[in-house]
What does this fold into?
Amino acid sequence: MQTSALSTENIRKDFPILQRMVRDGKPLVYLDNASTTQKPNQVIDAISDYYKNHNANVHRAVYALAEESTEAYEKTREKISKFLNIKNKEEVIFVRGTTEAINLVAYTWGRQNIKKGDIIVTTEYEHHSNIVPWQLLAKEKGAKLEYIGINDNGELILDHLDSYLETGKVKLVTFSQMSNVLGTISNSEEIIKRCKKAGVKTLVDGAQSVPHMKVDIEKLDCDFFAFSAHKMLGPTGVGVLWVRKEILETMPPFHGGGDMIREVHKYETTWNDLPYKFEAGTPNIADVIGFSAAIDYLSNIGMDAIRQHEIDLTKYALEKMSQVKGITIYGVKDILNRGGVISFNFHDVHPHDVATIIDREGIAVRSGHHCAQVLMERLNVAATNRASFYIYNTKEDVDKLIKSLEKVSELYKL
Amino acid sequence: MSDPLYTEIIIDEARNASNEGTLENPDISQHDSNPMCGDSITLQMNVNDDSISDVKWHGDGCTICKACTSVLTQLIKGKDLGYVRNLKKEEILSELGLEYLLKQSPIRIKCALLSLKALKLGLYTFLGKKIEDSASLNNLKDEASKLY
It folds into this structure.
């Protein structure tokens, strides 16, 4: 791992929102990056420039503007392929986000391949977006949804996977590469290896991993991969589904409409080539182009430097937080196996009260179930507070958080 | 260190909340929840001679929700239904010095008034079952729709 430190001082200058004050003149400390990240000028300007200078629909007309917008849109696909080491750029499908990506797989590949009595395996630390689509599919098909449990350290128990695989009924194993609540980094390569051996397809939810660490899809060797732009400096409303070509070629379309067809007759239609077959209608062109600027921004810093920055910050935060009276911190102790996400609770204080007290200092942390109620049940809590870091966060941000957490302890006499 | 919302009075009220528990075979039992915050409470009451002879509540809630629920149960225990039916949100909030939430915090006011919502819903359902003529029932529904 590289040790080259990134310059938060320079980075912060690119984010206009980090200059603003909240709650009676307190500088904003933004620690809800696992939910969504802030956007640098480069991304905001790329979107604005597209609308000011290039706006036209893609893949249709032949005039100059249409050529420019098509080129910029398609260039993003190339950039993503390079960023994640994807061999065929036609395997990259633009969607609204991770949620739509997973639903697309459930509705097309899932409906075609999951039969009565089959088993779909997910995990106890999944986001609702990697549970609910499979519940719907399992109900429709009479299939079963099973969960890989987590141990008290917040890591997946791979023995559970083995016992499901032994039944010979598993068709798909779907899991997140990094937990959005615990920050646990899944042992993805090992899970995929075991599934491959059993001839089982794998879907990886990269919503939390792609923004924070180097991901190599070729090396990972999964079958489906999903992630969102807005968690990695990009705009909301853009995400990517990657599907291995051999599988993508067998999948029926998701939405019908313009751009996804080759020829439409009264009663018959033939489909467009990949990936357009899965991109019906006018896509979110401006935001895809904005996403391109986000990938450039991250690439310029380097994913290894980003990961190292978050390791340093998380280590610092965990050390300081564990000294706050009455606090419980969830998740993996080994810093190398967790991302920059820290979930915590105070003895008998409701997370919403904690968040309100923290918010008074201008600090944004999330409180709630984080769209992971299955995990909340496993942890036996109704909700948690969560602080999550990104490239623009500093040790000063952590210090301010600690100070506000100490206020919680004091007010509640913990 | 102090905080305008998290005063000692409120934290103590929530920690040592009155009337926490469960009633067996209550005349009124109303559950309500606040998805934003995760507050989830059940309010139970017995009615005797047109007054609240007993009240208990249980569930999980934030400090604001618990403190206000505690105050609400103190206010209605032993009171006649006429008073309870007309119980105003300001009465509960003022006990804890929280009237300012009405103006300043549209999010946290939902925590503060969850138990009042449960009380009124439960009470109107209870009264509604006893009312035979539809005009009075409609009046009651109108009243219920203007809960707070």
Remarks:
- The interface with chain A takes residues 1-3, 5-6, 11, 15, 36-40, 60-65, 108, 111 of chain B (CB under 8 Å).
- Chain B has a mean pLDDT of 89.
- Chain B is about 50% helix and 20% strand.
- The radius of gyration of chain B is 15 Å.
